[in-house]
Specification:
Number of strands: 6
Strand content: 5-15%
Structural class: alpha/beta
Distance between the termini: 16 Å
Shape: globular
Strand order of the largest sheet: 3-2-1-4-5-6
Helix content: 40-55%
């Protein structure tokens, strides 16, 4: 039987953490009188830390201490996780169990740091479901460039065109499509516009729907 592979983004796909990050940024922006950063926040979804810093400095100037802002936001988010736990997206455990039973090769390609990915996986007890973990700190160029997905495909020893990429963000979809993968979107904070819709292989409302599609061999 031919091996199949699927690579997940993490925040907003496996963990309901994208909204937590955005809320932390909004809180800081309000406290610091930075104004409305909704568009900036959406544009940063899927990017790695270095790319996000550039986006902030483009908007607020080179003197803006984006590193400190992101560190403060990360601390607010971590405090919430410490208080309330790490929230999973609907269907996360179910789809990972299914993929393991069906002997899929499963990986993560997230713009979060490898350290953060490992921490989340260990805290949630999900680490053993993954054969490859690629963080944003492992590549020079962030999503929407394809580098992280090309590296993930290399890690699972599969050609990109045979690998499913599961993403929630436009930047992630752009990266997966540019890598030549089957780009599947499960939108979280941002719905696909016409540009992104044209790049999609499939779109689902949840991991539960994706699991049903896999069971029906629609992918």
């Amino acid at each position: 039987m031919k091996k199949r592979a699927i690579i997940f983004d993490m925040d907003g796909v496996l963990f309901d953490t994208e909204i937590m990050s955005s809320q932390a940024w909004f809180q800081l922006a309000e406290e610091r009188n930075l104004g409305d950063i909704a568009d900036l926040t959406n544009d940063c979804i899927g990017r790695n830390r270095a790319d996000i810093i550039l986006q902030f400095q483009n908007q607020f100037g080179q003197e803006f201490d984006a590193e400190e802002f992101l560190t403060a936001g990360r601390q607010l988010m971590q405090d919430k996780i410490d208080r309330e736990g790490l929230p999973l997206m609907k269907g996360t455990k179910e789809i990972l169990k299914y993929l393991k039973e069906k002997e899929f090769i499963v990986g993560v390609a997230s713009s979060s740091s490898t350290k953060t990915i490992m921490s989340h996986m260990k805290l949630s007890g999900l680490l053993d479901y993954f054969q490859a973990i690629i963080g944003g700190d492992q590549v020079a160029l962030s999503k929407p460039r394809p580098d992280i997905y090309l590296k993930a495909c290399e890690a699972v020893h599969m050609p990109p065109e045979e690998v499913i990429a599961v993403e929630d963000s436009p930047n992630g979809i752009r990266a997966a499509h540019a890598a030549g993968m089957k780009a599947v979107m499960i939108p979280d904070l941002v719905q696909p516009d016409a540009e992104i819709s044209a790049l999609l292989y499939r779109k689902y409302d949840s991991l539960t729907e994706l699991k049903k599609a896999l069971e029906k061999e629609e992918l």
